[in-house]
Amino acid sequence: MVESVTEFLNLKRVNATSRSSLAAAFARVLDSGWYILGEEVRQFEAEFAGYCGTNHCIGVANGLDALSLVIRAWKETDNLRSGDEIIVPANTYIATLLAVTENNLKPVLVEPDEQTFTLDVNAVESYLTSRTKAILPVHLYGRLADMLAVEKLAAQYGLLVLEDSAQAHGAHLAGRRAGGWGTASGFSFYPGKNLGALGDGGAITTNDDQLAETARTLRNYGSEKKYHNRLQGLNSRLDELQAAFLRSKLPFLDSANDARREIAKRYLTEIKNPAITLPLNPEETESHVWHLFVVRCSDRVALQNHLAQNGVQSLIHYPIPPHKQQAYRSLASCELPITERIHREVLSLPMDPTITREEANLVIAACNSFRIA
Ligand SMILES: *Cc1c(COP(=O)(O)O)cnc(C)c1O
What we know:
By secondary structure, the chain is of the alpha/beta class. The chain is 36% helix and 14% strand. The strands form 4 sheets. The chain has a 7-stranded mixed β-sheet with strand order 1-9-8-5-4-2-3, sandwiched between helices. It has a 3-stranded antiparallel β-sheet with strand order 7-6-12, with no helix packed on it. A two-stranded antiparallel sheet has the order 10-11. Pyridoxal-5'-phosphate (PLP) binds at residues 62-64, 92-93, 95-96, 138, 164, 166-167, 188, 190, 200, 202.
């Protein structure tokens, strides 16, 4: 009979740590009488741009829209055209690809580095064509892609760089944070992300004035001045309430990421089982924010069952790669053996900044008692 349980992510407990400031934020917005594109969004945009080290932040409705609106803005400004190709890691969440295809651009899938799970930048060159116009590295699981190499490649071939920072709020490499590397970056504030709202939310960060202005216009019906529409935009706004909640939580992002790192450090040093491959230890110069702690196992089903029997919840990120999804039948013939192997073997252990010592002990003990039959 299992008595203790380690949940995968206890969002109720995570948000309870900010309960009083979230309640104050709610009251502030309620009493302001102003619910869309007001002071809270404006302040959050300034604070988050400051945090990421960029000149601009544009709050939008969700992470997919953040990525998609950057691409759409590049099309509006003639930096991209329908049919252009964008380099995308094959090992990512499907939203990364959707942002490309909904703009009628072609995602060119490249394998990840098997150690870091992020884009293998060395493999990119052989996929470049005269239509390759951009590269979309994903900071998967909270680890920055090899952005120094991406920047070099982008400079050499004149590519735009769009970072998918949806899993990497606060992660940094060589002193620069996620969101501050590319030409532009997209963030998600989905509740389970490292910086999560109490609903949907997203943001674009960039240093490019023209891109910022175009994205800002597009997110609000293509209008700068009310009822004057310069572009055929859409409605993708971060609302005042979510912006106020995010402002309450942003000051605690670094300490929450520190707590994740402490848990990751324990898992990395105390899980000792030859059947379980641990993720690569981050280097001195990088700060991994452990959105997910992902291990590999040749018998993932057995490991997941064993953990469940011992009270440990685990999830799979992700069970099916984008190119094997029904939605992307057209990409099914891509040869991506590393990506497919990763998708067969990965399992995410509980990762939550509020995990207690005892809860982490349970995870470690359950991993260490696992045996492949
Ligand atoms: C969550 C996520 C997105 C999409 O964010 P939403 O806010 O859910 O639209 C995009 N890319 C990655 C890598 C994500 O993890």
